[in-house]
Amino acid sequence: MKQKATENSKINQLARMLKIHRVMAVGLMERLWHWTAAEIPDGGVGKRTDVAIAAECWWPWPKRAAEFVITLRAAGLLDEMKSCRLYVHDWHEHCEDSVHMRLARQRKYFANGDMPNMRKFSKEEKEAILLGYRAHGVRTVCAQEAHGVRTVCAQEAHGVRTVCALPIAYSLKPVASPPVAPICEGESGSGKGEGDEAHRILVAAPELRALTWEQDLTARQFAGGLDFLKAAPEIVKQAELMRDIQHVGAWLRVQYEKAVRKKGVGGGEGLTIDDINSAERNIFRGLES
Questions:
Q1: What is the predicted pLDDT for the residue at 239?
Q2: More confident residue, 248 or 79
């Protein structure tokens, strides 16, 4: 990772939630970043199991691997992504130039769909690489070079849906928005009082006031069959325990997944309800102390 990455406030959050010293949290993240650069340069670490991720980070408590990965998500250090389950937060922006060059020379992309940056290549090599991408019939997406704005992954992490146009030098590929549940008649996507009754119960809580209807809909895609109206009061109770929720959309999805597994609804994969309950208890204890 680039310099000053270890000074990110998210690492302080990780240390506080896991009840470990900040030095240890920095070491865990350094291991995650070095391992990702060496073994999964596209940043899609979720292609590995939670146990494998924890082991590669040198997390010293194997039986708490699920808790460790949940906390990385809650602290905003891992982003949820359908293509790879989990993606290192803003990896395409903060990884070293060598990672970009490695992916580009292999005609590959970051797991979020972004094309590697080619500013370190000569003009001739850059043109050859672009021709190689086109020769494979792959359409490229490079939000950074297109507009100099937040990349697609960062926008999704902050609840923004966009379709960025690309310069003529690149083939055009619209950026797909995350799937959302159908909006019932009379419900809007913006403005005060938006959403259904379950959503209004959630945002009435001070801790969830920043939650948007769009973020709620996106989180619901991973909780098929759940009665959201019945689940809302329990989620509000959990939010009151949490108190400070930085990435409310990602946190809500974890709560929906927990509720689904608790009720035996759907066919989600990954953690068991015992894993999630244990992780939640440890996280809450850390926040209350």
A1: 84
A2: 79
The answer to whether residue 190 sits within a structural domain is: no
How many domains is the chain partitioned into structurally? 3
Domain carrying residue 234: 197-288
* Structural tokens at position 135: 């020769």
Start-to-end C-alpha separation, the chain: 32
**Residue, of 181 and 27, whose pLDDT is higher:** 27
Mean pLDDT of the chain: 76
Per the domain annotation, does 40 fall within a domain?
Answer: yes
- Rounded to whole angstroms, how far apart are CA atoms 15 and 47? 25
Q: Which of 63, 98, 77 is nearest to 14 (CA)?
A: 77
**DSSP H helical segments within the chain, as ranges?**
9-18, 22-39, 50-56, 65-74, 91-94, 97-105, 123-135, 143-147, 152-157, 197-203, 213-220, 228-242, 248-263, 273-288
Q: Are residues 221 and 283 in the same domain?
A: yes
Q: For position 2, what pLDDT does the model report?
A: 59
35 belongs to a structural domain = yes
Q: What is the pTM of this model?
A: 0.50
